[in-house]
Design brief:
The chain is of the alpha+beta class. The protein has 25 helices and 35 strands. The protein folds into six domains: 256 residues, BirA Bifunctional Protein, domain 2; 107 residues; 55 residues, no CATH class; 106 residues, Elongation Factor Tu (Ef-tu), domain 3 (Beta Barrel); 151 residues, Threonyl-trna Synthetase, Chain A, domain 2 (Threonyl-tRNA Synthetase, Chain A, domain 2); 119 residues, Diaminopimelate Epimerase, Chain A, domain 1. The chain is 39% helix and 25% strand. Helix 8 crosses helix 9, helix 9 packs across helix 13 and helix 10 crosses helix 13.
Length: 872
RNA sequence: GGGGUAUUAGCUCAGUUGGCUAGAGCGCUACGCUGGCAGCGUAGAAGUCAUCGGUUCGAAUCCGAUAUACUCCA
């Protein structure tokens, strides 16, 4: 059975059981601060389990793309070594939200595996939760055990501990016991030698878990205790790649048709063969796996970067490059060339791969080149370290510096060192790494308390599209403590006019006022698992009373100007540059807006000005806002709205229209484009290969910008005695200035030559040395020039110059011919240090040239007098 | 979010306890030599040493802040 059919069969099976089939949610999470990526099939449905929303159907099924880079088995550094763990994988899942529970969950899983997929019953094992004797004191899941008994002999029902058979979403939240289904695909001979049941959960590559059925029945509170959930849920997840391995009768996920085409392409490009050399095989698996993770992520709009989710993607890609570099001898970018085969093979199930093939290739290629440069640089640094090192062991500190500051991977360092007969202090390195981790952890430490419920009102209504203030009640609140912000409170209302950060638009600020006139400021508004949360520094005194919630109108209005301008900018870009332009991110603040988009080259000044004109034409066109809060996604796209990759949309969406600009958008906008007043692009730059960024301002910010510019211009004009053409005048001044500088240089040279002559005449020979100590009227540079000018003519000079540039400033300069200083052991530095005391100062320099400064010009005479003492 | 490193000529970079009159290679300009492929020689132009502030007689160098880039950790 082909992988595509395996996926389709799964979905059809659950569709027939009354499930709604939904497409995979984007892999990058936007609505959950505790998670960077979707790491399991249930993550996109978290808000339903938390009771913050109602699903469209109480039975849902899908195939979800997931990314895991850490966890029980999925340490990034281990992927590729075995044949059944991945960074990116598909999770087939079926869910019951308060509907069916263990009985159907188990029966259907069994039916699908054994009757539809026709997996031999004898190679299946299941596990159930055995209970725990710790603080939770949970009983064994006999309910699940009794159901399984009907399908499978009891000797293949194993009891598992809390680690394996009790599933938790995080430190808090819904959780419950689970039942895993394992498969043993070893040969009959091996089975005869070692029993399958003894290999369950023992990391055997052919005895693996394929499906986990989670029975959510508890809620874990912040204090660690469990309470029963009012509604019980089913959450299951089956590893798609492993299922393919079983159904295609192969021994490794990498031998399925999911990976095979990619692997053979890698072999072709690198001129290697899969299945011959263990190390090369690992490298090939690493690259095949990581390619998928990186390509899917870029398609979902998450580009490699140096923070957050983007950094995870960069790390994954760099790991692939490293393995290619070390084991497949690839010194040029090549991973980008694999995107073509990936998009051909998976483009049908995941159209975003096909649509964005070009961008994915560009971004990967650019990352590859830049990392290869990093490696080159690191190799040079490492050479330097080796040649300077006195022993055969390189310290952990140095290796860590190479890794931490310059990004040179530790495994490459170790390899190169061992090739050259050096070792490295592994322990020291690990210590440095641990220190770094502790620093980061300490800085981001925070604790979150349980919600205190004041009013039971689970649905918080957003009224901010129509109102900027409202009478509200606080329904619940909690305290959050972090190192950075200290103690903060998060408040939830029964309804709110506050717009939460989202769609690039910043959250509203404002205040809460109670009937006694007490005011609490709302510093930010965010959305978390579908709940709008208001951040305050203090807790209101009278929590149970009514409050007036008021949004900061000025900030909101400025933000709306920028948001609407963003839409017009998007339209302008597609109009001026072409329809290949796609939004890759935007930030809408009150003070400015930022818009990232795909485009292959730097914008010309004409293009920028065309874009500005386009937007400003629509502003002066006074186009009214047409808002449709409840239009089907299908109808909206038919009308010309563009859905973004990596965004999660419901069946009905909100469409925002200004003339021909139509966007699916949850943000707030001005009522008429005329409100924006004016649009001005402030900068255009690159953020990655194939991605450009525009920063722009509107309304008040533009007024400030022009008035600031105008002020500067007026000042310039005034300085130039109000000339009519300041540019011309400045150019003229510049020319004159250059001319004058040349003249001054010539004059100074002449002056120095004259002085040189004078000094020549005044030199006295003392003890075989041409000596002079004299006060001159030059600045520090002039004296320097003079000294070296005279120095060119004589071989045995000892000069001391003094000058008093100001009433309370004095300076001494000592010049001694190099050879003389060397032969006789004279030290100009010592001379000025000692004589410097006479002018109440100090100084130093080299043995042949030194300067000193001080505050007492009246000491100069004495210093000049004492100079010849050094010659004796 | 927290660290580290870097920012010097158009480009790539050197500049070792604060004082070598801020340098090299490539590129550029001029002149000369030269029968091609990165030919050679001589001369020259080009720097607010990222920005702002501090310490010091003196800062490219030390300290602080800001900006940008790279990098590691979360």
């Amino acid at each position: 059975m082909k992988s595509q059919d395996i996926r389709a069969t799964f979905l059809k099976f659950f569709k027939d059981k009354g499930h709604l089939i939904v497409p995979s949610a984007p892999m990058v999470t936007k609505n959950d601060p505790t998670l960077l990526f979707v790491n399991s099939g249930m993550a996109p449905f978290k808000e339903y389990f938390l009771g913050n929303g109602t699903p469209k159907n109480n039975r849902i099924s899908d195939s979800q793309k997931c990314l895991r880079v850490s966890g029980k088995h999925n340490d990034l550094e281990e992927v590729g070594y075995d044949t059944y763990h991945h960074t990116l994988f598909e999770m087939l899942g079926n869910w019951s939200f308060g509907d069916y529970f263990k009985k159907e969950g188990i029966a259907w899983a069994w039916e699908l595996l054994t009757e539809v997929y026709k997996i031999d019953k004898d190679i299946l094992y299941v596990t159930v939760f055995e209970g725990s004797e710790d603080a939770d004191n949970l009983k064994m899941d006999t309910e699940a055990y009794d159901i399984w008994k009907q399908f499978i002999p009891e000797d293949r029902i194993l009891k598992g501990n809390k680690k394996d058979n009790f599933w938790e979403m995080g430190e808090q939240g819904p959780c419950g016991p689970c039942s895993e289904i394992h498969v043993d695909i070893r040969s009959a001979e091996e089975k005869a030698k070692v029993s399958g049941s003894s290999l369950i959960n023992e990391d055997h590559p052919q005895v693996v878990e394929i499906w986990n059925l989670v029975f959510m029945q508890y809620n874990r509170k912040a204090n660690g205790t469990l309470e029963d959930l009012p509604n019980k849920h089913i959450d299951t997840g089956m590893g798609f790649e492993r299922l393919c391995m079983v159904l295609q009768n192969v021994q490794s996920n990498y031998d399925t048709d999911v990976f095979k085409p990619i692997i053979s392409e890698i072999a072709t490009i690198t001129g290697t063969k899969y299945g011959i050399d263990t190390k090369q095989d690992i490298a090939i698996r690493v690259i095949a796996d990581h390619l998928r993770a990186v390509a899917f992520s870029i398609a979902d709009g998450q580009l490699p970067s140096n923070t957050g989710a983007g950094y995870v993607i960069r790390r994954i890609l760099r790991r692939a490059i490293r393995y290619g570099f070390t084991f497949l001898d690839t010194k040029e970018p090549f991973i980008y060339r694999l995107v073509a085969i990936l998009s051909t093979k998976m483009g049908a199930a995941f159209p975003e791969l096909k649509a964005q093939k070009q961008l994915i290739e560009n971004v990967i290629k650019e990352e590859e080149s830049s990392f290869l440069r990093t490696l080159d640089k690191g190799l040079i640094l490492l050479d330097g370290i080796i040649s300077e090192n006195k022993t055969k062991e390189i310290s952990g500190e140095k290796v860590f510096e190479l890794y931490d500051t310059f990004g040179f991977p530790i495994d490459l360092t170790a390899l190169i060192l061992s090739e050259k007969g050096f070792t490295l202090d592994e322990k020291g390195f690990q210590e440095e790494l641990q220190k770094q981790k502790n620093r980061s952890r300490a800085a981001s430490e925070s604790s979150t308390e349980d919600w205190s419920i004041l009013v039971n009102d689970p649905v918080e209504e957003f009224i901010g599209y129509d109102a900027l203030d409202a009478d509200v009640k606080i329904t619940r609140y909690r305290k959050v403590t972090s190192k950075k912000d200290g103690e903060m409170y998060q408040l939830v209302f029964n309804l709110t006019p506050f717009y939460p950060e989202g769609g690039g638009q910043v959250g509203d600020k404002g205040y809460l006022e109670d009937i006694h006139g007490d005011v609490i400021y709302i510093l930010d508004t965010k959305k978390e698992n579908n709940v709008i949360i208001h951040f305050t520094k203090t807790l209101p005194k009278h929590l149970n009373e009514n409050f007036k919630a008021v949004v900061d109108k000025k900030q909101r209005f400025r933000t709306e100007c920028n948001h609407t301008a963003t839409h017009l900018l998007h339209q302008a870009l597609r109009e001026v540059l072409g329809t290949h332009v796609a939004q890759k991110g935007s930030a809408v603040h009150s003070k400015y807006l930022r818009f990232d988009f795909s485009h292959f080259s730097k914008l010309t000044l004409e293009e920028i000005s065309d874009i500005e004109h386009f937007v400003n034409a629509r502003i002066s066109g006074k186009i009214p806002l047409e808002e449709n809060r409840n239009i089907t996604l299908k109808k909206a796209t038919e009308e010309g709205a563009i859905a973004l990759f990596g965004e999660k949309y419901g069946d009905t969406v909100r469409a925002i229209r200004f003339g021909n600009s139509i966007e699916l958008c949850g943000g707030t906008h001005v009522k008429n484009t005329a409100d924006i007043w004016h649009f001005k692009i402030k900068s255009e730059s690159a953020v990655a290969s194939g991605i450009r960024r525009i920063e722009a301002i509107t309304n008040d910010a533009v007024k400030d910008f022009y008035s600031e510019n105008n002020k500067t211009l007026l000042e310039i004009k005034e300085t130039l005695n109000n000339v009519k053409e300041p540019v011309k005048a400045i150019k003229k001044i510049q020319e004159e200035n250059a001319d004058l500088q040349k003249q001054i240089a010539a004059l100074l040279k002449e002056k120095a030559q004259n002085l040189t002559g004078e000094i020549d005449n005044q030199l006295q020979e003392i003890n075989g040395v041409q000596f002079l100590a004299i006060k001159v009227d030059l600045d520090a540079n002039g004296i320097k020039d003079l000294a070296f000018e005279v120095g060119k003519k004589h071989q045995n000079l000892f000069l001391l110059f003094a000058t008093a540039p100001a009433k309370d400033k004095a300076m001494l300069t000592c010049y001694i011919s190099k050879e003389l200083a060397k032969e006789r052991g004279y030290d100009a530095g010592k001379v000025v240090r000692e004589l410097g005391k006479l002018i109440h100062g100090g100084g130093g320099g080299q043995n042949f040239f030194a300067t000193a400064g001080g505050k007492n010009p009246s000491g100069i005479a004495k210093a000049l007098e004492k100079a010849q003492d050094y010659l004796v």
